[in-house]
Amino acid sequence: MDPFTTTVALGSVTFVPGLDTRLTLLAAGLIFLLALGLGVWKYRQMATSATHLAHPYVDIAHRASLLYSFATLLIAVFVELSRWPTWVNLTASGVLVFFFVGAIVSYIVHGARRDTTNQFEHPSAMLHVGMVALIVGEIGGFAVLLAGFVVGQFGS
Fold first, then answer.
1. Residue 143's beta-bridge partner residues?
2. Spatial distance between the Cα atoms of 33 and 69, rounded to a whole number of angstroms
């Protein structure tokens, strides 16, 4: 049996997810696990704070990681149903996951440093460059997957 092939029986239907789908699902699971860990950090800050609030960026990191984990699950569906080759789907989903995780890490850093409650209050040139890269990467990556889905599901 091929260790890189996973077969899932769903009643009378057999589903064999591609490597690109399995890696995207793994990323979703790891991001969700990170969200759960960040929830512990958020809880600890809420329990020990005089205001019973976590630092805004700890809260943002927790919420963003929850949302990004489910967004990554959605991406996995588009990866699986895309007509593009595995390497195209994996590259597109990898770009999306890279920027999702990068955003979460930046929130974690601000939460740990407690250096700001709004990273755009005094933005650097690098912040703007990073935001443009994020916009192009996320929209472009998903557009590639959506186009692959349309071709695969509605094309000839």
1. none
2. 9
Distance from C-alpha of 59 to C-alpha of 51, rounded to nearest angstrom: 14
Spatial contact of 71 and 4, defined as CB atoms under 8 Å apart? no
pLDDT tens by residue, 104-138: 999 999 999 999 999 999 999 999 999 999 999 99
Per-residue buried b or exposed e for 26-42, using 16+ beta carbons within 10 Å of the residue's own CB: ebbeebbebbeebbebb
- Please give the C-alpha separations between residue 55 and each of 11, 32, 68, 77, 110, in angstroms, as whole numbers: 47, 20, 20, 34, 9
Residue type, 96: L
Per-residue pLDDT tens over the stretch 129-154: 999 999 999 999 999 999 999 999 99
User: Which amino acid is residue 94, in one-letter code?
Assistant: G
In the structure encoding, which two tokens stand for residue 53, read together? 């609030």
Q: What is the DSSP letter of 49?
A: S
| Residue with tokens 């995780």, as numbered in its chain | 101
Q: State pTM to two decimals.
A: 0.90
Separation CA 118–CA 44 (nearest Å)? 22
